[in-house]
Design goal:
Layout lengths: L8 H20 L10 H26 L2 H20 L15 H5 L4 E2 L4 E2 H25 L3 H4 L6 H20 L11 H18 L18 H16 L3 H23 L6 H18 L11 H28 L3
Antiparallel strand pairs: 1-2
């Protein structure tokens, strides 16, 4: 892969810092989880864990040439690490008991006793980690870069070590903090199962096949807005359902969506504008859902509405800026 030594350090650190801060905001704030007054603190506290993971996943994919298949698979692995090993929300039936989502969680009928896992929450937690925590922030930040810089690694060895330590410390902070893991500890079997699943996802992500690029197909490529709308419809459609219906629809819709996007991405003309459109789907969907779901902590209607409007404005600014940068580069 291309070396980074020729670029000034500040040019490499700007996108790193942007991704470090954007990942936690998209993960926890873009869907209305926190009031506007709390967003800065949320970003600062969660940047080492969420932002660090996004940076490391992006670096792994860009250094090896694994591309978006590797990013998605490693994002899924991160989701299992986060929800299964760090805050252990995947196994903790009372994880949302002290939030405004307590009633929804208590009414969940998709818990699988033998695994101690709610299928609905697993779909929600892992899906949002893939779409919002990792993929959308990476696509957004890369869209602000020139084509020549977009696929280059940003960090050298010292930077990778620093970000790795930052991620580990951030994860440890959540694990030991009462408000993070909430005093819950999964069983050894659950922890081993989660670790094995993470290992499997990492192994699949490292397969050489992701580094082989098939020759572009001659079929016409759909407009970026069509790809974005398709992702948005799947995201919203899956999010508004509940119970086993949501689980079934989410699995089928996600599989179909991946198949369609993979097919389209192999066509001549697929570019960064399509990638940005796909990332815009869950980001816009989350901003829409912010008006429909409560934040974690109680808030007055006026506070909640103000926070939701703030989220919408931030999303519009981010996407408009990214689109403008792509047009500037003729994409």
């Amino acid at each position: 892969m291309s070396d980074t030594t020729w670029e000034p350090m500040w040019r490499r650190l700007v996108p790193v810092t942007a991704l470090l801060l954007l990942a936690p905001w998209v993960a926890e704030c873009s869907w209305g989880g926190f009031a506007g007054s709390d967003m800065l603190m949320v970003v600062v506290v969660l940047a080492p864990m969420y932002g660090g993971a996004a940076i490391l996943i992006r670096e792994a994919a860009r250094r090896t040439g694994g591309g978006w298949p590797m990013i998605v698979l490693l994002a899924a692995g991160f989701g299992v690490v986060q929800a299964g090993l760090v805050d252990q929300s995947l196994f903790n039936p009372g994880f949302l008991a002290d939030t405004e989502f307590a009633d929804i969680s208590a009414a969940d009928n998709t818990r699988i006793p033998v695994l101690g896992v709610s299928a609905q929450e697993a779909i929600s937690f892992l899906g949002n980690h893939v779409a919002l925590t990792i993929c959308a922030p990476i696509a957004l930040v890369e869209s602000y870069l020139s084509p020549a810089r977009r696929l280059r690694p940003w960090l050298r060895a010292p930077g990778l070590i620093a970000v790795t330590l930052l991620y580990l410390l951030g994860s440890l902070l959540i694990f030991v903090d009462d408000s993070g893991r909430k005093g819950f500890l999964a069983s050894p079997g659950q922890l081993i199962g989660a670790a094995v699943l993470v290992l499997c996802l990492v192994v699949v992500a490292a397969l050489p096949r992701w580094r082989r690029r098939p020759a572009p197909r001659t079929a016409s490529t759909p407009r970026p807005i069509l790809a974005g709308l398709l992702v948005l419809v799947v995201y919203l459609g899956s999010s508004v359902l509940s119970g086993w219906i949501r689980v079934a629809v989410s699995v089928v819709a996600a599989a179909a969506l991946v198949a369609v996007l993979v097919r389209w991405s192999e066509r001549h003309g697929w570019g960064q504008s399509h990638v940005l459109a796909c990332a815009s789907g869950p980001l816009v969907g989350a901003a829409v859902l912010a008006y429909l779901v409560p934040p974690y902590s109680p808030a007055s209607p006026a506070q909640a509405l103000a926070s939701d409007v703030l989220v919408s404005l931030i999303v519009v600014v981010l996407l408009t800026g990214a689109s403008a940068r792509l047009r500037r580069h003729g994409e």
